[in-house]
Design a protein that fits this description.
6 helices; two-stranded antiparallel sheet
Length: about 190
């Protein structure tokens, strides 16, 4: 055991120095699942199926659309899985297999800054779509009401990604940067 390992406080069940609120852990698990319907709804576009959108003849060739759509879905889910860094030990200490920083403690703002930017970016990305559903701005045309309902049901859960990520980031900040405040072990409420 090294001197730095001996000076670290014992870790919780999540591998973190301080307890993670139950709601934050559940939210981190929910984010990739909330994005899954959107990723699955997007897959038929890769093969030229327009899912009821009024875009006849505007679809790109398959050699472009297949890697683009599958890549976009994989990147979306990979980014969603990064939310676990806000509730797990690898968001506090870099995994040992990482070159140069492996095993070192991460500065809280090295995690908070990209998380806030990601949360704000996801919120800003989806805001125009949500507004268009209420008649503000341009809306996508569909060949039938059923297609539009399906699209909205699949897309809406993904719109929660940004706000949920910002909530997780706030919990991470409270846990790591505000030593006078801490979350209670069981319920996740703030205890002074």
């Amino acid at each position: 055991m090294t001197a730095t390992e001996a000076s670290r406080p014992p870790l919780t069940a999540h591998g973190t120095e301080r307890p993670v609120p139950r709601w934050a852990s559940r939210t981190a698990h929910a984010i990739p699942l909330l994005l899954l319907p959107q990723c699955l709804w997007r897959l038929p576009f890769a093969f030229g199926f327009e899912m009821g959108l009024d875009v006849a003849g505007e679809m790109p060739p398959l050699w472009i659309s297949i890697p683009y759509v599958f890549g976009l879905s994989l990147i979306t889910e990979a980014l969603a899985l990064l939310s676990f860094g806000l509730v797990r030990g690898w968001g506090e200490v870099a995994p040992r297999w990482l070159p140069f920083i492996g095993g070192r403690r991460l500065a809280p703002f090295a995690v908070i800054t990209p998380a806030v930017l990601g949360g704000l970016g996801a919120t800003a990305f989806w805001a125009p779509v949500l507004l268009s559903w209420f008649g503000v701005g341009d809306t996508a045309g569909f060949s039938g009401g059923g297609w539009e309902i399906l699209a909205r049901l699949c897309i809406f859960p993904g719109m929660l990604w940004g706000p949920l990520l910002l909530g997780l980031t706030h919990a991470y900040h409270t846990r790591r940067c505000r030593p006078g405040k801490r979350y209670a072990e069981g319920g996740g409420s703030l205890a002074a």
